[in-house]
Design a protein that fits this description.
417 residues, alpha+beta, 2-enoyl-CoA Hydratase, Chain A, domain 1, 19 strands, Pdz3 Domain, six-stranded antiparallel sheet
């Protein structure tokens, strides 16, 4: 009987604990709901006040986008809202083709800044440069336009040419008419200096790995004794393509990279397969302060695995992965979801990748002047490429000497008789 009473007391106590626990959870849920309602009401009240009392007319959409960007802006500089037009343009660019003049842009207080000019594009042949400021489009002041209007005017087929008013170096002003065309974003270019193949990757899009495979075949067909991978001014692009580029040069299941995140599904280690398409051919990678994101991943992966010598300057330091999350009909948000860490455990974000052989831009300029030959006045010699060529020639000679020193296997038919 006592045992039965004790059991009833225990069960009753457990029920009380469960009731208290459930009540606490209910109170927490109610509290969270109240907080959410309060936050939404607060944001709504701010927007209403601005709409009613701000000195100029301003659309509600612009205020809402500003609120979204404000939320994302407290995270990091790479998390942001992307409008529907920007999202469409981004999607086209990753596929490798789009209609436009061939520039990458960002909005600033002074106007729209050109952040990159695509090689052999209409913008390039018209003389536009990185850091040029677009202040007018077709004689209309840029300050009167939303960024999506700017993108539309530069990339839509409504007009096949566009007049741009440019400010360069804050003082030089000029107008230029640029014809639009279908831009083929070829991310890989191959050249040779003597027996050294130079493969330049300008960015990583959906066709980069296929183009890289072709470049490697071209290098082997040309009997290259070494390969220079030029990643200078490469801002990154599709991270998965950068990972797969590493896989082309690494074998024996070597670690390519680690992704680390608060979200377990984003945290993973990636390893190479068993084949190096260059079969150990000496490599050098050229990097500078504009080498970023996926390009930094390639540099740190091949550098840590002793597969390539890094030459140039310390890289930008964007060692993070952004995931594009579409919002149907409203564009997308770009959200930082993971950071990547080198095979040797080195953090890249806010740190960058250091070269094995440092050549600063000031030293490069001095070297160009010193190497200029009288018969080649005005022709610039790239000292970083020259340093890489000299290094690879040296490594090739050492490799050949090593092979000569190796004991040769005797042919059984040539034994003493």
């Amino acid at each position: 009987m006592k045992n039965s009473a004790r059991a009833v007391l225990v069960v009753t106590a457990l029920c009380v604990v469960l009731l208290i626990s459930c009540k606490k959870k209910e109170e927490e849920t109610i509290s969270l709901s109240i907080d959410s309602i309060t936050t939404n009401t607060f944001i709504k009240e701010i927007i209403e006040e601005i709409s009613s009392n701000y000195a100029d007319d301003i659309s509600r959409e612009k205020l809402e986008i500003g609120a979204i960007n404000g939320i994302l802006g407290v995270l990091d500089e790479h998390s942001m809202y992307i409008s529907q037009d920007e999202f469409s343009a981004f999607t086209r660019s990753t596929r490798g083709t789009f209609l436009g003049i061939g520039v990458e842009i960002k909005q600033t207080r002074e106007g729209v800044e050109v952040t990159a000019v695509i090689d052999d594009s209409p913008a390039s042949t018209s003389g536009l440069r990185e850091n040029d400021l677009i202040v007018k489009i077709d004689d209309r002041d840029i300050s009167e336009m939303h960024i999506k209007t700017v993108i539309s005017k530069l990339s839509s087929d409504s007009a096949l040419k566009v007049k741009l008013s440019i400010v360069r170096n804050k003082s030089e002003k000029f107008d230029v008419v640029v014809k639009k065309s279908v831009i083929q974003l070829q991310s890989v270019k191959t050249d040779f200096i003597d027996d050294i193949a130079i493969i330049r990757i300008t960015h990583f899009n959906e066709g980069t790995v296929i183009d890289m495979s072709s470049a490697i075949k071209k290098a082997l067909k040309g009997k290259a004794t070494g390969v220079i991978l030029d990643l200078r001014n490469n801002p990154g692009g599709i991270m998965e393509q950068a990972v797969r580029v590493c896989d082309l040069f690494l074998g024996n299941n070597k670690k390519i990279i680690d992704f680390q995140s608060r979200n377990k599904s984003e945290s993973r280690s990636i390893f190479a397969d068993e084949i190096d398409l260059l079969n150990g051919l000496p490599m050098a990678i050229l990097i500078d302060s504009n080498t970023a994101s996926g390009a930094e991943l390639v540099a740190t992966s091949l550098g840590d695995n002793k597969r390539a010598v890094l030459i140039g300057e310390k890289t930008y330091g964007k060692g993070s992965l952004q995931t594009i999350i579409p919002i149907p009909g409203r564009g997308a948000i770009k959200l930082t979801t993971a950071y990547f860490v080198s095979p040797n455990g080195k953090k890249i974000d806010q740190v960058g990748v250091s070269p094995d052989i440092e050549i600063l831009k000031a030293d490069q300029d001095n070297n160009i002047q010193l190497q200029a030959q009288p018969q080649q006045q005005g022709q610039k010699i790239d000292p970083v490429i020259q340093r890489a060529v000299d290094l690879l020639h040296g490594l090739s000679v050492l490799s050949d000497d090593g092979k000569k020193d190796e004991p040769q296997e005797k042919d059984a038919s040539s034994s003493n008789r």
